[in-house]
Amino acid sequence: MKVYKQGGIEATPTEAQDLLAYHGVEIVTPELKAGDKYFKIVALWDKEGPSAFIMQALKEDGTRWGGIEAAWWWPGMKPEDNDIKEAYPTDWHPDADIGLTDAVTGECGPAMGKGAYHGAYDKKGPHQAWIRHPTYPSEMLINIGMVAGTNHRHFDCWWQLTTAGEGEEPEPPPEEEPSPEPQTWTMAVTRKSGLLLLIGTLPTAGVQVTITRVAPGSKPVILKSGSKPEYGPGGFETPIWHAGEYTIQFLDQAFTVDVPGGQTTYVAFIRIQEPEEPQARLVSVWMSETEAQELLAALQSTPWWDTFTLEPKP
Q1: I need a surface site. Which of 2, 61, 87, 138 has the fewest CB within 10 A?
Q2: Where are the beta strands (DSSP E) in 204-288?
Q3: The pairing of beta strand 146-147 with beta strand 117-118
Q4: 102 in a domain, yes or no?
């Protein structure tokens, strides 16, 4: 599966992982055996603008497929919203809003309302979608919605009729970031009355930061330093939905901070420079040259044999 950033640019594996986490969507695959035909999700497109969720159906040869049923579901559907007249064994739900893909574009675009908004990373949208066919099952995209505070930002999705086990290459492994050298950091915390936010700064941009509430079942918020440059080159910010303890992880570091209600919590991470080891050397008392030669010979039989020399008295 390919993931595309806004502007139609294909995301790197690391960028794709971040976008999937940002939108919170997941793919559910039906039970298949080798040789089964099914509608596979082959592309997700990060979009802003209209609130319609664009579903596109593709034939096996990659051409657009019009007249295919596109199923759109949300919890608590009313009977009048259900367009399913005849149940298929491939259906994911007994009820769904059904539209037909366009004969030219192969697209269908169900609209999302204000109930589809959700927070980035930590929240999920209410909708689910699949391509409906009496014979061929379909992968289903779940947790579809629009990210709050954006211009209807969401994923659009393409499905393609595919034969299970044929031409499916394994996903490339995620890009590995080089392991940083062990470092020592300190955290400075300040608070002010205001919105329930956690604002932080790091010395540089581009560092992945993971913020997790210390509570069972909590899901992490993953962001990058520098995403909020108004706080500094490595600034970042996330809304907090529940006051309490949170862990902040970056590089090989982990800190815990208390985020009380009714306040904005600011955290600044500062790297502590390790002091250089003080330098010294051994100096003996003056002695006869014969005694000094004997002492040097004794020292040269130790692991530090090459660190000593004889110095004549001036």
Answers
A1: 61
A2: 208-213, 221-224, 234-239, 244-250, 253-259, 263-272
A3: parallel
A4: yes
Are 269 and 201 within 8 A, CB to CB? Answer: yes
Here the tokens at position 184 are 């020592």
Q: Enumerate the β-bridge partners of residue 39.
A: 138, 161
Residues 10 and 45 in one domain: yes
What integer best gives the mean pLDDT of the chain?
Answer: 88
Which comes out higher in pLDDT, residue 183 or 127?
127
Domain holding 84, by residue range, is 2-163
Render 114-160 in DSSP notation, one character per residue: GGGEE-TTT---SEEEEEE-SSS-B-EEEEE-EETTSSS-EEEEEEE
Q: Alpha-carbon distance 45 to 144, whole Å? A: 12
- Residue at 213 is within a domain: yes
pLDDT in tens, 204-231: 999 999 999 988 878 889 999 999 999 8
Question: What tokens appear for 46 in the block?
Answer: 């990060």
Q: Are the C-beta atoms of 157 and 176 separated by less than 8 Å? A: no
- What is residue 61's DSSP assignment? T
Query: Angle at the Cα of 168 (from 164 to 174), degrees rounded to 5?
Result: 135
